[in-house]
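Notes from the pairing session

We agreed to fold both candidates in a single pass and log them together. This is the raw record for the first candidate, unedited. Please don't reformat it; downstream parsing expects exactly this layout.

Candidate A
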Amino acid sequence: MKESVILREQPNLFETKVAILEVDGDNDSIYLYVFPPQTPREIHALWVANSTNRDAAQVEEQMSAALPPRLPHAQINAAAVITDLEPDNWDVRWSLDQQSVAVWHLDKIVAIMPSWGPGNRFAGFARGCTAETAVAWPLTDENMLLTQFAAEDTFLRNWNASSWKSIQQATLHSYTSQHVSEIRYFAADQGKWPPLAITLSSSAGRSFIATAGMAILPMPGPENASEESPSRRIELGLLIETTEADQTVCGQLSSWARYPWRYATHFDHGHTISTEVFQQIAPRFTHMAIAEKASFLPSIELPQLADEQPRFLYLIPITAAEQKMAENRGTTRLLELLEASPAPLSLQRDAVA
C-alpha cells in the first residue's frame, strides 16, 4: 500500500471549511476534498487529475472497491495526466465569497468545486475530464467560474497597502451626509484580512452607525447571477433616533458584518433578523428589517469596488408582530406602513402591526 500525499491544505478565511488536495498513492489519482472542520464526515470530493497514464476500470467499479476513482482513458484528454507532484507547483484558492474552490497547477486552473455542487451531489469541473461522471464534469473555457476566479485572482494580486486606505476613505466619504456629529471609527477585523471597521456618528438623540469594509468580499450567493442581479457586495447600517444603544449596536453590527460568510448565507432587501440590542431601552423591538430603499431612508451611494456597485442596506428596528407580518405579507407591506408612520426610526413610535 502506497501512502497518500497531501499537496495542499487550505481553510477558507473564516475557517468554516477546509480544502485538501491529495494524491492517492494506491490508485494514482489526485483529488480535492472539502469539508467543515467541525463535521469532517460531511466531505465532498472532486477528481482533479490522474497522476500516471495507466488506464482504469469504470468509475463505478472503482467506487465499489472503495478507491478514489482514476478516470479511464475513454473519459479524459491530454490535460488529465499530471505527474508533477511537487507541492510548490500546486495551489488551492477559495473564491472571495469563501464557498467555491479552485485548484491551480503552474498558474492555471485545472479544477473547480462550485459552492452549489455539494448540495446538489455534484462533484465539480476538471480540465482533464471529457465526460459527465460521478467524480467530475468537463471544465471548458466557456465556464463562467473561470472568469470569476481570474477576476478575483487579479483583485487579490493588485491588493496592496494603499488599497484599504482608498476603500476606507471613499466609503467614509459616502457617509458624510448622514453624519450628525464627528465620526468615530472602530476597527473590527481583529487584525485579519479583509479589513473591517464600524463607524459611529451620534448627537442630540440621533445615531448613524455603519460598517466600512464589508463590501470587500461578495456575500455567498448565486455564482451565475446576471449583470442585472443586485451586487453581492454590501455595507450595513442603522439610522436611529436614539443614542442610548450605540455601544450594543456597534458590537452587534461587527458580528453581523461577518455573518454571511460564517453561515454561508446573505443579507438582502426584505430580510429580517432577530436582535437583543434594544433589550435594555426598548425591549419590544426584537427584530431588524433589512431595506435598501424606503422613503424615510436617505440614499447612500457607495464607491465602486472591483468594477461593481456595492449596495447599502439599512437595518430598521421592528417588533415581533411586525416581523411576523413581514413574514406573512412581505416586507414591502411593512415598509409601506412604516412610511406612513410619523416617526419610523424612533423607538418611541407606535407599532404598525
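Candidate B (folded immediately after A)
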Amino acid sequence: MVRALTISLGVHMNQIIRKVIIAVSLLWVCEASGDLRATGDLGVVIERETASVQIVNTSKPAVLSRIEGLGDLSHASVVFSRDQRYAYVFGRDGGLTKIDLLLDKIDKRVIQAGNSIGGAISQDGKLIAVSNYTPGGVKIFSADTLEQLAEIPASYGEENKLSKVVGLVDAPGQHFVCSLFEANEIWLIDAKNPREPSVKKFKDIGKQPYDALLSPDGHYYAAGLFGEKGLALLDLWQPEKGVEPILEDYGKDDEQLPVYKMPHLEGWTMAGDWLFVPAIGQHEVLVIDKRDWALVKRIPVAGQPVFVSGRPDGRQMWVNFAFPDNQTVQVIDVKDFNIIKTLQPGKAVLHMEFSPRGEAVWLAVRDEDSVMVYDTETFAETARLPAYKPSGVFFSDRANRIGW
C-alpha cells in the first residue's frame, strides 16, 4: 500500500515538474521573441534605397520590424523556406541574405557574385540557386548554411564567353531551369546531386531571352524574347521534344515603341485555359490559349505593362505599367477580358502581391513612400503602411508554390 502510494506520488510529481518546465519554456519563448507569430501570416517589403526590408503581417496589415544592411536591393527578389520561417533575399550586388522572420534578424549573409538578378529554392527546400550577370552563371547553396555547393559557369560558343543568366526558376524533380541572354539558350539543371549538378542545354531557342516563367503546375517553361517576336516554350514533361517557338507572328507589323522597362514574365498568370502576358513595347496585354498556344486577344491597356498579376481565384488580372504611366493600375475581368477598373494609387507603382486567398492586394508605391492595400472586390483602399521607397512585396505563402 505504502509502495503503491509512493509510486503514485512520484508519477504525479513528475507530471507537475513536466508542466512547470513546459510553462517556463513557453514564457521564455514569449519573452525572447515578443508576441508569437504564425509564419504563414508574414511577408517582406523591399526598401531598396535604404538597403532594408520590412517584415509585415498580412492579415492585419502592420509593420512588425525593419532589417537593415542588405546591400543593393535595386532588383531584389525573395523566396521562402518550406516552413516559412526564413526569407532569402537576392540583391543586385550579388548578396544572398537569409532572414529569420521570427527573430527579426539576418541569420546569414554572403556576397556570392558581382551582379545578381534573382534566384529560386529547390523542390525539397534544401537548396538555393542564384542566377548571376557577373560573372555569368548559376551558383547552388545549402539553404541551411549558405555554403556554396556548386558553380555552373554560363559559358557558350567556341570562345567560352560568359552569358548573363535570367529567368531562373525551380521545377519538379529537383530541377532548376534558366535562360542565357547572350547565348540564346535554355538550361535544364538536375540538382539531385547538388555538388555535381548535370545540365541539359537547349540551343538557338530565339534571340536574347530576357526573362521567363513556369506554369503553376510545373509543366511548361516559357522564355520571353527581346531580340525577336514571340516566346520560347519548353515542355518539361517532354524535354526531349526540344524548345518550340510560339507567337512568332505577334506584332511583327506593329510600330515598336521605346521600351521604358522590361515586362516581367514571372508576373504572367494562367486562369483556366487562358494565359495573360505583358507585351513588350506595346500598350497591350496578350491572352493566349494554352491548349494550342494561339493568340486569342490583344487587350488595350493604359501603358506598357510590367506585371500582369492574377488574383488567386483567376477571376481578375491586375496590371501595372512602366514610366510614364506608372501611377496607374488597371483590373481586367477574365470573364470577358474587359477592363473593369482603373486606379491611380500614386506615382511609381512597382510591384503587386495578393493575399493568399486574394481578398486583398498590396501595392508597392515607391514615390509615395507607401505600401497600399486594396480590397479586390470593392477596389477601396483599406490600409496604408509607411515604407522607404518600396519596390517589392513578397508573402510567405510563396513557399508552397512551384516556380515562385
